[in-house]
């Protein structure tokens, strides 16, 4: 028995060590970015790099705000990412329910098209997309970018939510229907609460995808007052490719905060939703 316990303990220790190494691997870029944002130019150019700044300063953050419209671009990114996320998920919930519950050749073809559309490279669609938005006067506008992000996020949201809808027992819907509930009432009162984990996960992934997206925002937005955070970060790189490293690191740290806050706010609901869904299911 002692040998078995020792083997189990060694295996568990190995799992924890592997998990710790993985966490360090994920946290290293963020920690190094945070450290760089507080360093002076002299310390960043030193041949002996340090983890902790010897003389931490907020000069990089001050310069970043003075040279680029970070506050305005952050607000633009928040408006675009938040609107696109809410719209795409709102459309995806009833659409995913219909694709799962009303099986037909049309729904099967739609599901296949959803998967195929995710394989299209951005460069393939950007020219017709640009011309289409130009014809409806939505170039260089947040509304046009929101529409693009909704269309781009919708297949992913549908694909994610379909798996969660399939996990909802049909017997619960049949019981509600026998009590006189309409299809919409069944979706709102029975299915939707059980989709809480899927909704939270889809919201998080959709928001992060829209917040970090760069290519569409670069091509479709021209005015500095309309540009998003991901585009503004490129302004810290000069025409010769030389980056203003300190302000760039400071601005990058600020750009990661909304995603981290959004995840922190929703991760509790994700855990509680999973537990509630398990109990109800």
Write a structural description:
With 281 residues, this protein is mainly alpha-helical. The protein is 78% helix and 0% strand. The protein contains 13 helices and no strands. It has helices at residues 2-37, 41-44, 59-67, 70-101, 105-117, 122-135, 142-167, 170-178, 183-194, 196-212, 215-220, 229-232, 245-280. Helix 4 (70-101) runs parallel beside helix 7 (142-167), helix 8 (170-178) packs antiparallel against helix 9 and helix 10 (196-212) runs antiparallel to helix 13 (245-280). The radius of gyration is 24 Å and the shape is globular. Residues 273-281 have low confidence and may be disordered.
Describe the secondary structure blueprint for this structure.
Layout: H1 2-37, H2 41-44, H3 59-67, H4 70-101, H5 105-117, H6 122-135, H7 142-167, H8 170-178, H9 183-194, H10 196-212, H11 215-220, H12 229-232, H13 245-280
Helix pairs in contact: 1-13, 3-13, 4-7, 4-10, 5-7, 7-10, 8-9, 10-13
| Unreliable stretches covering 5 or more consecutive residues | 273-281
Ends distance: 39 Å
In helices, the fraction of residues equals over 70%
Number of helix segments?
13
Q: Average pLDDT across residues? A: 81
Largest sheet: none
Oligomeric form = single chain
Per the principal axes of the C-alpha atoms, what is the gross shape?
globular
Radius of gyration: 24 Å
Order of helices and strands: HHHHHHHHHHHHH
Structural class: mainly alpha
Number of strands: 0
Strand content: under 5%
């Amino acid at each position: 028995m002692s040998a078995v316990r020792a083997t189990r303990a060694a295996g568990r220790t190995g799992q924890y060590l592997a998990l710790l190494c993985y966490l360090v691997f994920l946290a290293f870029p963020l920690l190094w970015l945070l450290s760089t944002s507080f360093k002076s130019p002299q310390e960043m150019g030193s041949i002996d790099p340090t983890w902790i700044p010897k003389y931490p300063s907020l000069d990089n953050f001050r310069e970043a705000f003075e040279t680029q419209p970070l506050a305005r671009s952050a607000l633009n990114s928040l408006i675009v990412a938040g609107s696109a996320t809410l719209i795409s998920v709102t459309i995806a919930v009833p659409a995913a329910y219909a694709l799962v519950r009303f099986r037909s050749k049309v729904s099967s073809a739609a599901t296949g098209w959803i998967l195929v559309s995710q394989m299209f490279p951005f460069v393939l669609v950007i020219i017709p997309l640009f011309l289409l938005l130009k014809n409806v006067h939505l170039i260089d506008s947040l509304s046009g970018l929101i529409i693009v992000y909704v269309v781009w996020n919708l297949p992913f949201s549908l694909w994610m939510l379909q798996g969660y809808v399939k996990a909802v027992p049909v017997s619960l819907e049949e019981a509600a229907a026998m009590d006189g509930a309409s299809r919409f009432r069944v979706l709102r009162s029975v299915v939707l609460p059980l989709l809480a984990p899927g909704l939270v996960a889809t919201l998080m992934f959709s928001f992060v995808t829209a917040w970090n997206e760069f290519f569409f925002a670069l091509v479709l937005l021209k005015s500095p007052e309309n540009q998003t955070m991901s585009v503004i970060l490129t302004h810290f790189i000069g025409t010769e490719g030389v980056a203003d490293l300190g302000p760039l690191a400071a601005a990058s740290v600020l750009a990661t905060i909304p995603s981290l806050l959004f995840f922190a706010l929703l991760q509790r609901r994700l855990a509680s939703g999973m537990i509630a869904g398990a109990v109800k299911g």
